[in-house]
Every structure is written in C-alpha cells, then in structure tokens.
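2024-03-11 09:14:02 DEBUG pipeline.ingest accepted 1 chain
2024-03-11 09:14:02 DEBUG pipeline.ingest length=300
2024-03-11 09:14:03 DEBUG pipeline.predict start
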Amino acid sequence: MRCTIGVVPFTSRQIGPCFAAEVEGLDLRQPLSPADVAAIHAAMDAYGVLVFHDQHLTDEQHLVFSRSLGELEDSYGNNLREADEYRLPTTFADVSNLDKNQQVLALDDRRRLFAIGNRLWHSDSSFKIVPAKYSLLRALAIPSKGGDTEYADMCAAYDALDDETKHLAEDLICEHSQIYSRLQLGFTDFTETERERFKPVRQRLVRVHPSTGRKSLFLASHAGQIVGWPTAEAMGFLKDLIEHATQRQFVYAHAWRVGDLVMWDNRRTMHRGRPFPPGEPRDVRRTTLVGEGPTADQAA
C-alpha cells in the first residue's frame, strides 16, 4: 500500500498473517496535513496495526502526533499508582516497570503484580464506558530478551466463526473490569476505593467497525460476565472465544527495538505483553485515543 504524506510518499508492507503492516518513509516528528492524517487512518483501516521503526520522538512529539489523529484519553486511575507516584503525566499510560525515580519495581511491589495483567489478552480501556480507539506505544528502553507484544485480529477471528456461534454472540453484552482480569492471575489485593474505581462496565461482544463496516469480536481478559448468563457458562464461552481468536493464523508478534512506535486499533484487535527478565528496565509509553462512544449503545 502506497500513500502520500505531504510531498514524501510512505509505503506500508503487510507483516502479519492477515493484518499488521510496517510503515516506511514517514518521520513522525514532522507536522501532518489533513491529507496526511486521512492517509494514516486509511492505513489503519486496512491493517489494524502499524509499525514505525526508528522514531526517536520526545514525549511532546509523541503527544503532537497522537493529537493529530484524535482526542487523547486521560490515563489517571488505570493502574495502582497513587497520584504522587506517577512517573509521567496522565496524557501517557505508563506501562513500564519503573517507579517515579526510574528504578525497577521490586518483585513483590503490588504495582508490578497488577501490571502483570497486561500479559493477558486484552483491549485497551475496555473496562471504561467509552473504550479506546487507537493506542500508540513507543519504546525508550527494552530488556535483553522477551517483552514482545502480540496482536490478534478480531475481524478475521469473527469471520472464521461458524454461523451458529456468530448468531449466539451477536447480541450479547459483557461486563468488563480490571478486577476480572487480575483475578485470573490470583491478584486480589484491592482497596475498597480501587474496587469502586474498577466497577464493571458493559460492552458488546460483537461490534461493527465505524469506518470499514466489518464485524469483530470485542474480547478481553477484562470480560468476566455475560449479562443474563450464569457466570460459569459465560466464562467458559469467553475462554473458548479467546482461544479461537488467538490462534497463530490471527496473531502478529512484535519484537521491540528502541525507537519503535506501534499503533493499533483497539476496535478490531486484542493484544498482550510477553514476559521479560524482571530486574531489567522496560520503558514503554502509550498514548490512547478515545473511542466513539459506549459499545453497548451500538447496534451490531
């Protein structure tokens, strides 16, 4: 796929089995015209995940690029860091393993243990009433091994379902909460304030992409209930769907390099981080764009 950014063309080459592309010929430090923005959105609609190498941005340049594509989500309250423990402004989601003094979090630090939940398959901010649109993650420091991010194409996964399962899932509403995902890992160390903050929200199980019109499964480890279903049956059905959606033919695995920026569409993908040596720093910073509205209000 070839698009034109200003006077410089950029190219995108598919690198995943059915989605995901590597972009060349684009410097994200430069301002974007309306035509530039439209070209990037078109590439996102085509591939769902875009990989930009050698983008050594400042935080401000990262923010400027993100804001050119849409409204930023504030990340306050997404994790267990207290207000005086934040390392970055809340325009960023700090998905590193570092404290505010740039030190690696201890093995038993509850902030680190909570963040291990990011190794489960999920979609960013599905636990919010208005879930995320795009996520833009940038690597400043990476460990000596591990720490990859895997992405699953939920449109391709939906298309591969049999008709009976599609019909069963069509109108289902799920409840999403970070408490559900952390319980899967045995993490129960929540204060009453945190339990209130992470109260479940409702999302459709099948959603329609507003730009492409394609249907996809809206799954995440944060989904712990299906409205009107017994819990055990709901959890079994969701587990089966996640196993289906994360088969290798639907998954792209990204091995990070310093200077990479990876951008993905949460409306059609799930992702998860992979383990890495816990004593090594992994400094990755994410901006997140707000989605169109509550999915429970959208007709499938």
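2024-03-11 09:14:41 DEBUG pipeline.report The first strand starts at residue 2 and ends at 5.
2024-03-11 09:14:41 DEBUG pipeline.predict end
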